[in-house]
Design a protein that fits this description.
The chain is an alpha/beta fold. It is 32% helix and 22% strand. The strands form two sheets. The chain has a six-stranded mixed beta sheet, covered by helices on one side. Strand 4, helix 3 and strand 5 form a beta-alpha-beta unit. It is globular, with a radius of gyration of 18 Å.
């Protein structure tokens, strides 16, 4: 478990599911500018920033090519990272093909699985949320294909102009990938990330479980001392979570 001690007056911020580039670069541009404005706003008191996946609607790292666009986002992340603000990135189901670019260019560690943190003595279980819990079975099968080394090798040999365009098309059109069909509250007893968190609590206590992926801002009490939070998205809600060293709150960026 990684330990983080917040300096006096500093906070930890959590955000996810921007899906920049969807449905088109032009249409997502205002959302990108809003996200960059949020990063600018929080930089004065950010002790750490957790980005919980699907920052891009599609991301694939070729050895010598990165997808076009997102210059303002990269620039702001580089500025904050260079200023000494720790940033942690958890890949989502749309950007799981990260392989070194964030680490090398932005000094941002990238995680492909949930991680545990102790922040000011408060325990956190943090991840994107895809493929966890008893459901999400269709995506779990699809993820095996996406992460298969042979499939990635064949895709890498497509010219980037063709590969990126093809992947962007399916990313927007395929609801199994996009998660659009799940973007509604299922009821606490049917929320599979809630069920996953409760199962984890059977073997170890965490004060907070924080996920993205669901595109819904949610705060659900798991027990008297444990809580599940979903950060929502930056498509419809523009929500994020803020931890001041004691309290965790969901907030909306206006």
């Amino acid at each position: 478990m990684t330990t983080i001690e917040l300096p006096e007056g500093k906070k930890v911020y959590f955000a996810s599911d921007n899906h920049l580039g969807a449905p088109t670069m032009d249409k997502s541009f205002p959302r990108e500018k809003k996200f960059v404005a949020w990063l600018e706003q929080i930089k004065h008191d950010a002790g750490a920033i957790f980005l919980l996946g699907d920052l891009f609607d599609f991301w694939f790292e070729y050895k010598t090519v990165v997808p076009k666009g997102f210059t303002r986002t990269f620039g702001k992340l580089a500025e904050l990272s260079d200023a000494g603000i720790p940033i942690f990135y958890f890949v989502g189901n749309h950007d799981l093909w990260m392989n070194g670019y964030f680490e090398e260019e932005l000094n941002i560690p990238v995680f492909h699985r949930p991680q545990q943190y102790l922040i000011n003595g408060v325990s956190f279980f943090i991840g994107h949320g895809d493929g966890l819990g008893p459901h999400d079975k269709g995506y779990k099968r699809m993820k095996k294909v996406f992460t298969n080394p042979v499939a990635k090798w064949f895709f890498r040999w497509l010219h980037p102009d063709l590969g990126v365009r093809l992947a962007q098309y399916f990313s927007v059109k395929n609801k199994l990938i996009s998660g659009d069909e799940d973007a509604k509250f299922l009821g606490e007893d049917k929320e599979w990330l809630v069920q996953y968190a409760k199962r984890k609590l059977e073997t170890r206590h965490y004060d907070h479980f924080i996920f993205g992926h669901r595109h819904l801002p949610l705060e659900i009490t798991l027990s008297q001392t444990s809580k599940y939070t979903n950060t929502g998205d930056w498509i419809h809600y523009y929500t994020y979570a803020e931890f001041d060293g004691q309290q965790l709150q969901l907030k909306k960026f206006e």
